[in-house]
Design a protein that fits this description.
Layout (H helix, E strand, L loop, with lengths): L1 E7 L3 H16 L3 E7 L1 H6 L3 E2 L2 E5 L4 H6 L3 E5 L6 H11 L9 E2 L4 E2 L4 E2 L4 E2 L4 E2 L4 E2 L4 E2 L4 E2 L4 E2 L4 E2 L4 E2 L4 E2 L4 E2 L4 E2 L4 E2 L4 E2 L4 E2 L2 E2 L3 E4 L4 E5 L10 H8 L2
Parallel strand pairs: 1-2, 1-5, 2-4, 6-9, 7-10, 8-11, 9-12, 10-13, 12-15, 13-16, 14-17, 15-18, 16-19, 17-20, 18-21, 19-22, 20-23, 21-24
Antiparallel strand pairs: 3-4, 24-25
Length: about 240
């Protein structure tokens, strides 16, 4: 049984845990999630995520790696692509220490290339020629046409559609039910808002919303990263 620690919180981290747990319970995958790495919750002591203990901070990853653990990377705050990169750097482990999670209910065409640490959720579809960069998360019912390429640290929310020959830079976010048309391009760290339709190019660090999507602001203008509302409520109630 391979020992896994999820790096993240109850949102995307909880979703990664759910995929791995379902793979163990229903499909016999010999992976066991033992807990989470999460800086703010570990500092408070005794905290749990999805019933499992928060076992350490990101900087504790090398110690757990020496003990034989591997990691599911699931830090994906929307609009904060550089934070994702920084989080992995702080872990101080190699990409080879990450597990690549492919749920059996995902369709992955022959020849698709997945970087280390990618998570594919149930119901997603990756057609021929797709390449997904390391530490990217693909939510449920996300559809990729053929020959799509993404950089590392990308996040695709449930129901997103990425059409053929699209190119997506590193640290990008494609939000709920958003669509990229054929040959659309997203620059590094850009964001496509929920329900939006990108027909051409999104500049680096731009936030694009609407049908068709237009530049709304820069990601630097978005609110600072916060814990999700449930985690914040739990902290206040302690």
């Amino acid at each position: 049984m391979e020992r896994i620690l999820v790096v993240g919180g109850e949102g995307t981290g909880g979703n990664a845990w759910a995929c791995i747990e379902d793979m163990r319970l229903r499909y016999g995958r010999q992976w066991q999630v033992e807990g989470f790495l999460n800086d703010p919750l570990f500092c408070e002591g005794g905290r749990r995520i999805r019933g499992l203990p928060v076992m350490g901070r990101l900087e504790d990853a090398p110690r757990f790696a020496r003990e034989g653990c591997r990691f599911a990377f699931a830090i994906h705050p929307v609009g904060h692509g550089r934070l994702k990169e920084d989080a992995f750097a702080r872990m101080g482990v190699s990409l080879e220490s990450l597990v690549t999670v492919v749920h059996p209910m995902a369709f992955v065409a022959p020849g698709v290339e997945l970087g280390p640490g990618v998570v594919l959720s149930p119901g997603c579809c990756l057609m021929a020629g797709v390449k997904i960069g390391a530490c990217s998360f693909v939510g449920t019912n996300v559809s990729f046409g053929h020959d799509v390429e993404t950089g590392p640290f990308c996040h695709f929310s449930n129901g997103a559609v990425v059409s053929s020959y699209a190119r997506i830079g590193k640290g990008c976010d494609v939000c709920l039910n958003a669509t990229l048309l054929d040959m659309a391009v997203m620059g590094d760290y850009s964001l496509l808002g929920s329900g939006s339709l990108l027909k051409g190019n999104a500049e680096e660090g731009g936030v694009y919303v609407g049908v068709p999507a237009r530049l709304s602001r820069k990601v630097e203008e978005l609110p600072a990263y916060r814990l999700n509302p449930s985690e914040e409520a739990n902290r206040k109630n302690r």
